[in-house]
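User: Sequence in, structure out. Go.
Assistant: Echoing your sequence, followed by the structure tokens.
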Amino acid sequence: MNPLDRLCALYGVHQEYYTIWGEHHPTSERTKRAILAAMDVSAEDDAAVEASLSAHQDRQWRRLLPPVLVVRELSGPCRIPLNLPVALDQAACRWRLRTEFGQELGEEFVPASLEAGGRHQLDGDERVRRLLVFEPPAETGYHRLAVDCGDGMQAEMTLIVAPHASYTPPAIQGAGRKWGIAAQLYGVRSAHNWGMGDFSDLRALVEFCADAGAATVLLNPLHALFPAAPEHASPYSPSSRVWFNTLYLDVEAIADFAECAAAREMAASQVFRHRLGALRESGQVDYAGIAAAKRELLELLYRHFRQGHLEAGGARGRAFRAFQGAHGASLRKLAEFEALQEHFQAAEGAAWGWPAWPEAYRDHRAAEVAAFAEANLERVEFYEYLQWQACLQLEAAGQASWERGLGIGIMLDLAIGVAEGGAATWTRPELYALTASAGAPPDEINLMGQDWGLPPWIPHRLRDAAYEPFIELLRANMRFAGALRIDHVMGLYRLFWVVRGFTAVDGCYVSYPFEDLLGILALESQRNRCLVVGEDLGTVPDEVRHALHPAGVLSTRVLYFERREDGRMKPPQDYPLQAAAAVTTHDLPTLAGFWQGLDISLRDRLGLFPSDEVRDRQIAARAADRPHLLQALEQEGLLPAGGSTLPESFPAMTAELARAVYAYLARSPAKLLLLQMEDALGVAEQPNLPGTTEAVYPDWRLKLPAELEDWRHHPWLQGVVQALRRDRP
């Protein structure tokens, strides 16, 4: 192996990838050097590669202890590498393990008595790697191991003891099989909301699920976006995945609204009510209009809160201070970012993110940032106040799901990454490959591959941080939920990187510490009593599927893709047990759209097919899909009365046919079945059309046609619900 390839192996850069057609793409030398550079590893020429190889080796040997070790409970002794000068072979050393729960273990040792694992010359001294072997604590958790050999040789590391599997709620243990709904919260209409679904609508969704017999409601990601740029609407391109989108706040449900006469007077005015009426009536979410309306009221509520509670030192003021204290720098940095983004967007007109700010403010630790935060403390705390209210309202919805007996509870969705110019990358830029993006290799629709515009985590930097960013991420998204869907779960194993200025065809895969991340996922899942669902659609490495099953992660199985080798639909009994089954997802055509081929005609009209040949193949395949689906229903005795297996007998999707399709899927042994609300209401348009922008398709803006209050009497929806209740009581 040549030096460049050895360096790539050290940093997880793959040598090749295969397309869905089996085409082999070796990673070019140019791509290898660029990927390494994106990781801040110098590789521009052969001399730089040799220097980086040497620096990597020295860095490993310079550490007395690794930053972190993840082991599984009851898996036997753990082996910790110690890198010590040979001169300390006979030193009196001691290791001490303090468990998360306050217990202390440890003993003295002499390095020479330990097994040796290699030697290395470092700064003129010879070092030897010794293996410290001991039984880890029986309790799972985050423990701290310290080693002290005197003479300046002391170090600490994190030892994580993880369970073997994630949490499975009692509702789906044994023979339990449940169903739930999948809804885009922003698209929910209701009599009270201000033009988009909000956290009070979420509570109402929980009530609907409880009455209908559903066990969960899956939502789009609720991550923090960009308050100063509300038209940045994609929930999969957030500013921060740790905090929440405060546009989902129900302003009138905030405690300060009942106390603030000025806010109530504004909300009750004829002009304001007319404004809200227009926002509600629109068929698409008017993010800018909604944000402006909510902001006016929220400013009044915050002013009332500061004067009446915070400055007065009342109970609610103390509760806010406690919230700030509990979340510390994570909350404050988000608020500073949002205050700065608001400031520069107003001053510059189009500051899309921190890379476009004046240079002095691009470092979150800069004196200029601290001075701004001090001078604008009330504005910074305004954004903290909004997050406090979002957490209170989301927590209330989560609590309602338990009180109403949902067997799984609310299911949140974890996006695969963050936007380049957001709070996450500003706060921890060293963690991200800011000159690269996550994406996907070429496929049938995207012959040139995909570039998602999301800078990926640098794997070795994540490990150097003892995985704390990943732990924080899981805790934030699990604390109010009963289940967590992980978008593109293969990202725990590998991600396809595309360097800026390169085409996606020239990208390559980069490996991540899969076993470590899977162990931490299981630990946080158990602690938060949170089911994990992995979105594992597309080309999934065998290693991922083989690991997810014993780890207790539900696989995602979509009706459209579950086929036999001859193209026919798989019968329900062939679906796996450990799965979340669905007819479709937010990125795919709805059942009505699939049946009518609307997605194909739309892509054709927008010029999204790479060639006429690809388009024609999809048209032919869809023509075969319709009779396949009808034949599958007939074999299960579910074909609607008066219908035949000829698609002409169902020129359009009907309520009876939709009910039959969901009844078909409900018969599968899959632990969970998700009903897409667009299907439940007969909607033809899909929420998101991948590969498009707002200019050509209203991604993340379409509303459901029926108000939430009318769902209980909607014949199409109730027919599907009755079918699911019959097969999954």
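User: And one key feature?
Assistant: The longest strand covers residues 125-134.
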